[in-house]
Amino acid sequence: MKLSDAKLKFEADYFDFVEIRKNPGNISEYIALLYGRDGKSYMLCNEEDVVVSSRELEHLVLMLKGVGIRKAKIYF
Model pTM greater than 0.85? Predict the structure, then answer.
């Protein structure tokens, strides 16, 4: 899900919870998973539909804060 779409869905209270997990394609990086109230899950993507991944947790946390999300589970 693109950052701009995630922001709109967050404002509409769509998300049930958010997780930050290891990237299965590269376990030295983390990705953000967004879970909707309807049971669907999404990976956070940039505006070019590329999954946002980072070696730094802080980078993902700041992006999630920019969307409006204030709480996430982190799995190391």
Answer: yes
Q: pLDDT tens-digit profile of 16-63?
A: 999 999 999 999 999 999 999 999 999 999 999 999 999 999 999 999
Report H helices in the chain. Answer: 3-11, 57-67
- The dihedrals phi and psi of 38, each to the nearest 5 degrees, come to -90, 10
CA distances 34 to 31, 43, Å, are 10, 6
Q: What letters, b where the CB count within 10 A reaches 16 and e where it falls short, cover 4-37? A: ebbeebbeeebbeebebeebeeeeebbbbbbeee
| CA–CA dist 26, 7 (Å, integer) | 26
Computed on alpha carbons and rounded to an integer, the radius of gyration of the chain in Å comes to: 11
Structural domain that includes position 66? 3-74
